[in-house]
Specification:
Alpha-Beta Plaits, 6-stranded antiparallel β-sheet, two-stranded antiparallel sheet, 4 helices
């Protein structure tokens, strides 16, 4: 099932300051500029949110948003560019759910559904429907969005989230 919108959405998050860019929000704003220099155009940005770590831990809270972007790149090249910007900003992948300066996720690429593979993204993002820090900002940007696999409206996905996922608009 493909989305009629044909739009591309990426998730942005971070919970550690960057030595040059500062707070997580300023770091993520700088990352959006870095993406722009790579030909990935920001169309719209959701409000910023402060979110508790998942799973619950003693890490600092995250700052998250979702961006609608435009690019001529295919999904695998876009994912490579997102990872390149993460590396440019000092992202080191260690253990899952570790604290990080920056996290850029390809959430939905024009409603495409793909199983992934070496160098190829799973589309839509496999945990998209489980995370308040993705769904709430996405709902702000695209209130008519439906999950490309299930067809579930985003408002139903938000309503089904576990109540222990704490998210507060900044």
């Amino acid at each position: 099932m493909t989305s009629p919108s044909g739009k591309i959405y990426i998730g942005l998050g971070g919970n550690l300051p960057h030595p040059h860019h500062g707070s997580p929000r300023l770091t993520l704003e700088a990352a959006l500029l870095a993406l722009g220099r790579r030909g990935i155009r920001l169309v719209r940005l959701s409000p910023w949110y402060r979110t508790a770590p998942i799973p619950v831990s003693d890490q600092p809270w995250f700052v998250n948003a979702v961006a609608e972007i435009e690019t001529e790149l295919p999904p695998e090249r876009l994912l490579a560019e997102l990872h390149a910007v993460e590396a440019e900003f000092g992202r080191v992948r260690s253990v899952p759910n570790a604290a990080r300066r920056i996290d850029l996720d390809l959430l939905d690429f024009r409603g495409e559904v793909a199983p992934g593979g070496p160098g190829r993204p799973i589309l839509p993002h496999p945990r998209l429907a489980e995370r308040a820090f993705v769904l709430q900002p996405l709902a702000d940007l695209a209130p008519q969005w439906r999950h490309p696999v299930t067809g579930t409206p985003i408002q139903a996905l938000v309503a089904a989230l576990p109540r222990d996922q704490i998210i507060k608009r900044l």
